[in-house]
Each structure stands twice: as C-alpha cells, then as structure tokens.
From TrEMBL:
Leader sequence residues: 1-29
UniProt keyword terms in alphabetical order: Signal
Protein name: Htaa domain protein
Length: 248
C-alpha cells in the first residue's frame, strides 16, 4: 500500500476527510483578542515497528492539528510532509477555521522506503490571504533493529591480554520477511568496571556486509561489556545484552 493510501485508509476509519471537520473542538475556541498567532499540533512521540507488533496495538496512532488562533487569523492550511520532503496533496486540509480540529490516522510503514521523518505543518493566513506565520511538528517512523550473538571473550581472560567484543547487527526488512543483516553501521562499545554504575565509552567498530562486528581491547579489570547502536532516521537504536568478564 502506498503512503497516501495507507494514511487515507486510516483517516477514513477515524471519520475525517480531506477538508474541514464538522465543528470546533469546544465552545471556547474563539480567537483571543491579540495579534499573536498560536498553534496546537499533536504528533506521536515515536513509532518503532517490530515484526511481532500487532497492528491494533502499535500502529494505530493519531496526528491532530488545530487551526491556528489569533485576532488576525482567518484560516489555516494544514499539510502532511513525507520523509522525501513531498507534500501529500490528497490528504491536505484547506481553510481550517481557528480552533477547528483536523487529523490523520498513522499506520505502521510497510517497507523501508516508508520510514523516516514525517511532518505536520500549519500555515496561518489573514482575511486577505496573506501568510501570517508557520509552525510544524515532526515524528519518526522507524524499523526495529536487533543485536545478536553478542559476546566478550575469552572468559576469563588474563590481565593485559586481548579481549574481543563481537556481535551482529540486524534491521527489520519488512513485516512479512522479518530481519536482515545491517552493514556499514557504527557500533559503540561500552565497559562498566565491577563495583561501579558508570558506563565508559571504549571505542567503535563498523558492521561488515553480514552485519558482524568485532573489536579488541586490552583486558585490565573485571567488568561488564555492551554494544550500542545509536540508530538512524530510518532504523531504531538498540542495546546489546550485557556480558560480564573476569580478568585474572
């Protein structure tokens, strides 16, 4: 399903259509007696898609926008901008009155091309059609990642010898086929000495074509190792399991 179709389907389920909703949010939605323009936009904080997610639980999220308010505001235009910077004209709203509510239903992206940064933009106009002010809010729709086969070895290790941290990074390919190797990404390696609560950054390693990574360190003291992937605009961040190593 294409992006416009996906969002239109969800919007229809919410009972909204392209244009203006039936009425104001409340009886107190009149303009304040001020020249200032105020905005209200409500977007999801984040949307991370896993293969095992159930659509009803994780993928039915709403984006709500209210017409800008102010003594000089006559109406607002509201647009949805996709990760490629394109405005979706089919599901835009035109001439939304001050305080009136419009919105879209947001579903899980079906493929990597649908992931990334989405933006809801509001442009306020006066009665003459002059642009007064613009406000926008964004959210990210990302695919899940996973770190497998994480290990710090040998265990135990002699002090001064090389301890190797390794693992494999995966990302969701699509919800039907599951996960695939994630190459060319930087993994950050951290160490927490025994008896402390603070993680220390030790170095980084880049994933190979099969998603595998490895990095050697000089063993100095007992402690716990972990790997961290900071994520991208399309794939979510991830932390490996912890692996404790004795140093003899």
């Amino acid at each position: 399903m294409t992006l416009p179709q996906r969002l239109m389907s969800a919007a229809a389920a919410l009972g909204v259509a392209t244009g203006l909703l039936a009425g104001p949010v409340s009886a107190t939605a009149a303009d304040a007696d001020t020249a200032a323009v105020t905005f209200r936009i409500q977007v999801p904080k984040r949307l991370s898609v896993k293969k095992t997610d159930k659509y009803d639980k994780y993928c039915r999220m709403d984006v709500w926008v209210w017409g800008a308010k102010g003594s000089t505001v006559a109406y607002s235009n509201v647009d949805l901008i996709d990760p490629h910077g394109h405005i979706e004209p089919v599901i835009s709203y035109r001439k939304v009155l001050p305080g009136y509510q419009v919105g879209w239903g947001v579903g899980c992206p079906a493929k990597p091309a649908d992931t990334g940064k989405y933006t809801a933009r509001v442009i306020a106009y006066n009665r003459s059609g002059k642009k007064l002010a613009t406000r926008q809010e964004s959210w990210y729709e990302k695919f899940d990642t996973a770190i497998g086969s994480f290990n710090a070895a040998p265990e135990p290790v002699r002090k001064g010898r090389t301890l190797t941290v390794s693992g494999r990074l995966f990302r969701l390919n699509d919800r039907a086929t599951g996960y695939t190797s994630y190459s060319g990404k930087t993994m950050r390696i951290y160490f927490r000495p025994k008896g402390t609560k603070t993680w220390k950054y030790m170095g980084s390693a880049k994933t190979a074509k099969d998603g595998r990574f490895r990095k050697g360190f000089k063993a100095s003291r007992d402690g716990t190792w972990r790997a961290y992937f900071p994520g991208t605009s399309h794939c979510d961040k991830q932390v490996s399991r912890d692996d404790y190593v004795d140093v003899k």
